Amino acid sequence: MNVFAFDIETVPDVTGGRRLLGLDESLPDSDVAEAMLAVRRADTGGSDFLRLHLHRVAVISVAARIGDKFRVFSIGDAETGEGEVIQRFFDGLDRYVPRLVSWNGSGFDLPVLHYRGMIHGVSAPRYFESGDNDQAFRFNNYLNRFHERHTDLMDVLAGYQPRANAPLDEMASLCGFPGKMGMSGAKVRECIEAGDYEAVRNYCETDVLNTYLLYLRFELLRGRLDRTGYDEACALVRDALAEAKLPHLDEFLAAWQER
Of these four, 24, 98, 223, 246, which has the most CB atoms within 10 Å of its CB? Predict the structure, then answer.
């Protein structure tokens, strides 16, 4: 079975913000973003977390188990438009038909991809399959909250009770994984506006590594992996990170080994 643990990083959709707020094209992007956040704070009484359709997808990262191979990769850079980023993600689903694994993917990542995919005319037939064309998806598809083609670990572990949700970083740390490493989601917009996609990609990749490792622990918890199988799956990740020879993955591996 193929597995894609995934995460997205987003910034305010300033193009959409200009249109919806009637702002002048000459206004700098950063000022448009601030205007969008100010309107949101006024609407909510304090929170500036934008509604999901106003999040522009900058980066999608994936920790992928494909057959007996493991790798981490990201889609999204200064030259790649949002529509292409989303289309390439869904093309990967069409090709590998993996189990998607996320932390709060049902509440954030996937709805954002739905809205933004519609805006850009993305096609994702396999993702939206529910059994009409492929009977295998009738009782296990990506859309049903209680099916497993998409496993939102936060949702499942909380027993589908929002008040029981736990942060990814804290659960990863408690389970002996590195958790957050230096950067946070609050810095994503700053990095993207500066053109530093690499920093965002590196940050997002460490998040999906934490998510994938928590998924392995969940598989151990529910008995789909025994201790030997779990140790072997973790060893596959360690070997892949060591072979990649990338500084942020080396840092993640070192932090993991210290736990």
Answer: 98
